[in-house]
Fold these 2 entries.
Entry 1:
Amino acid sequence: MTYRLEQLTVRHLVAGLDAPPALHALDLVIEPGEQLALIGPSGAGKTTLLATLACAHKPAEGRFSVFGQDPWALSQAARHRLRARLFLAPQAPPLPPRQRVVTTVLAARLPHMSFWRAFASLVKPVDPDAAHAALARFGLGDKLYSRVDRLSGGERQRCGLARLMLSNAEAFLVDEPISALDPALSQHTLATLQQEASERKATLVCSLHQVEMARAHFPRLVGLRDGRIVFDRPREAVTDAMIAALYENEHVQPPAPHPHDTPDRIAVGACF
Ligand SMILES: Nc1ncnc2c1ncn2[C@@H]1O[C@H](COP(=O)(O)OP(=O)(O)OP(=O)(O)O)[C@@H](O)[C@H]1O
């Protein structure tokens, strides 16, 4: 299996001290090639869970295995090798602003290169065709030689996903990949990610705020709230009532009308 979490609790460090748990006693098993969406309100723990699956957070309690190994029982070098089999795509990828897109995308291959080849590739991209092909899958083929800081937020997000295409990862951990995209691009982007994962038989775990997209695209939905798994079901078994309960009381109240925005005032204003 790809992941096994048993009673896993994760805390962030705040000012050097343990904060209250961001994830509480999670039990989760993810098989190779599975595609699942993490949904839940803001602060539910989706990003923390993805980072934990990427071996970026050491759990405080419980048992955790990736490809049958406990990463935190391994040497640092072995854990590094294990991490190279995983790819975490953050919502806002930290891409070097002054770099060309081609160099940034090809950086996905750095963990698998020798030091000198990696160094040389930073000076002169070694395989621009591969970078172009990966970018083209997200509609960004024409941005190959653009500077990263000239990309829009949505383009930067897709640039991060193009990196994923060039990695050798066996598990894709993708955090809100469509948060900066319009509906048509969102559909295309999710379909591209899912197709790549299927072809490689890679595991795909994707957090989404767009619940209907999650229900439409993913066969398994995991609902998180307050750091706990509220449900973990095939999509057919997830009802509207379960979704409503997951997000209950999470709606932000609309702001009170401004005293000057009364209909009278608007009508008067409209005369000018
Ligand atoms: N670096 C951090 N340091 C301290 N606490 C953190 C840190 N990152 C997240 N948290 C806390 O952990 C909890 C889970 O946050 P997380 O970012 O995982 O939620 P999320 O479901 O991804 O939220 P969103 O949908 O808003 O991105 C929250 O209470 C959050 O305040």
Entry 2:
Amino acid sequence: MVGENKLKGELRIKGAKNSVLPILAATLLNKGISILHDCPALKDVYSMIEILKHLGCTVKFIGSDIIVDSSGIIDNHIPDELMRTMRSSIFLMGALVSRNNTAVISFPGGCDIGHRPIDLHLKSLRKLSIMIKESYGYINCESKRIKGCDIHLDIPSVGATENIMLASVMADGITTIGNAAKEPEIEDLQKFLNSMGAKVSGAGSNTIVIEGVKSLHDVEYKIIPDRIVAGTYLIAAAMTSSEIVLTNVIKNHLESLISKLNESGFAIKTGNDYIKLFSNKRPKAIDMIITLPYPGFPTDLQAQMTSLLSIAEGTSIVTETIFDNRFKYTEELVRMGADIKVDGRIAVIKGVKNLTGTSVVARDLRGGAALVIAGLGASGITIVEDIEHINRGYENFDENLRSIGANIEKMM
Ligand SMILES: CC(=O)N[C@H]1[C@@H](OP(=O)(O)OP(=O)(O)OC[C@H]2O[C@@H](n3ccc(=O)[nH]c3=O)[C@H](O)[C@@H]2O)O[C@H](CO)[C@@H](O)[C@@H]1O
Ligand SMILES: C=C(OP(=O)(O)O)C(=O)O
């Protein structure tokens, strides 16, 4: 891409990756038809579809609609090569054991952003009377009856909260999740499950209550907009001193980012379902950004924001509290002229006047997006390699950016 082009125009944000993936896993539960609207065409979504098909579902992806028929025979085994394609394959553990009483899976894959154990998932499912044995890299789950119980999470893990919800929807009795994650995608999963006849309440607060039901029915549902994709485009506009309007967004989901962009000197206007960012000046440094569980600043926007702050006036400090190795991309930003020092979970960013284009490598999804943002603002040509990471979370990233004025091409 050739940097320093102004962006101008409107983009509609599609459904959220982190909603559609657990919801696709949940389609196993109703033994019938699920129609999902506004689904993004992402590498992870295709991986999840492949797993559902392997298990015996019929799946069609037409336009932005995914139609899953899970009435057919459902296998109970997910091969290792499918499990490894992404982190979200772990959602199949709760859904599959709930549907089949047994599941044989292995450890999930995903971006290299630090240590990502699944101990909380395993511990919680065991509390629900699911017997879990680990051997030779496989995880064997079995339960005659899943039994509702009280679970208190040590960490408000998004994935563990969702896996418990999936496993307990049809359990005997009531399950309570204390210290649950509060991310909007968890509320979306609750709404989806309730639309198919489940009895889940409390998502969005730190206590979720799931009253087991005997059966579920067919469902049609629209996925919430992707707050991380929306945030990425807002930061891209800020980086290039541009003006863009995003539609199909939920402003409340982006409060922590909007507040930090305001602090950095950007004017943002919001309406019922749009956000507009207008900028014609260099960003101001931000004393402190700390990534935290929702409603705190999302770890999934940390890299993109650091990219922006690399050209800010002054010195910023970014602290990553969720993952233990999510600053790898900063080495690539430094190759573009950024002045960033990382010590463990803290990055100190001394703003430089401008970045310069060069060849850089995407090592993970959001780090890759951060490098594209850097390239859009940099002088000269930037080449971002290994963009398959970016395809995990951004539909038509290059096309969308080009449609609002970026000089960017995908090379085959
Ligand atoms: C598909 C999806 O929704 N992915 C999101 C989800 O990932 P994911 O669900 O993997 O993230 P978690 O909320 O579970 O992870 C938070 C922290 O808990 C730790 N942990 C988690 C589970 C466990 O069993 N043991 C344990 O120690 C993790 O290592 C991490 O340090 O939430 C993250 C945090 O908002 C986001 O960055 C990811 O985009
Ligand atoms: C880390 C992310 O996703 P996942 O949990 O799917 O790896 C992300 O979306 O930034």
